[in-house]
Amino acid sequence: ASGTNTGTLSGTSMAAPHVTGAAALLIGASRSAGGSGWDADRLISALVGTARTTVRAADGITLTDRFAQGAGRIDIAAAARAGLYFPSEPDGFPSFTGI
Predict the structure, then answer these.
(1) Spatial CB neighbours of 75, under 8 Å, sequence gap ≥ 6
(2) Quick check: 23 and 43 in contact, CB under 8 A?
(3) Which pLDDT score, from 0 to 100, does residue 76 have?
(4) Any idea of the CA torsion for 44, 63, 10, 85, to the nearest 10 degrees?
(5) Which end of the chain is more exposed for a tag (fewer CB within 10 A), N or C?
(6) Are 55 and 63 in contact, with CB atoms under 8 Å apart?
(7) DSSP assignment of 39-54
(8) Cα(74)–Cα(49) distance, rounded to whole angstroms?
């Protein structure tokens, strides 16, 4: 039937709107709770630190590290509840790889 085709798109042009939307939701939730909104460090820490790993390493068994680019799926509910905060320079997150 016409109009039943689907497709798959990936890459940064597909990820960027989702991450931007997640960041906007977190900022909005913080402001609704009486806060001033989250800064970039806290947003990055919450989104990366609570991402669900979905990509497997070259062995096909081991899940990749959540700090590897593109290795995780955003968990907005977990990010909103994130209590642990890693203030970091933008290049600081790769140093957590392998923990």
Answers:
(1) 50, 51, 52
(2) yes
(3) 93
(4) -10
(5) N
(6) yes
(7) -HHHHHHHHHHTPEE-
(8) 10
Please name every residue paired with 72 in a beta bridge, in sequence order, or none if there are none.
Answer: 53
Would you give per-residue pLDDT tens digits along the chain (99 residues)?
567 788 888 777 888 899 999 999 999 988 887 777 788 888 888 888 888 887 788 888 888 876 666 667 899 999 999 877 767 655 555 544 454
How far is C-alpha 32 from the geometric centre of its chain's CA atoms? 21
- Rounded-to-integer distance, Cα 29 and Cα 36, Å: 10
Identity at 69, one-letter amino acid code? Q
Closest CA to 26 of 4, 11, 2, 48: 48
Compute and round to an integer the Cα radius of gyration of the chain: 16
Q: pTM above the 0.90 mark?
A: no
Q: What is the pLDDT of residue 49?
A: 83
Q: What is the pLDDT of residue 89?
A: 58
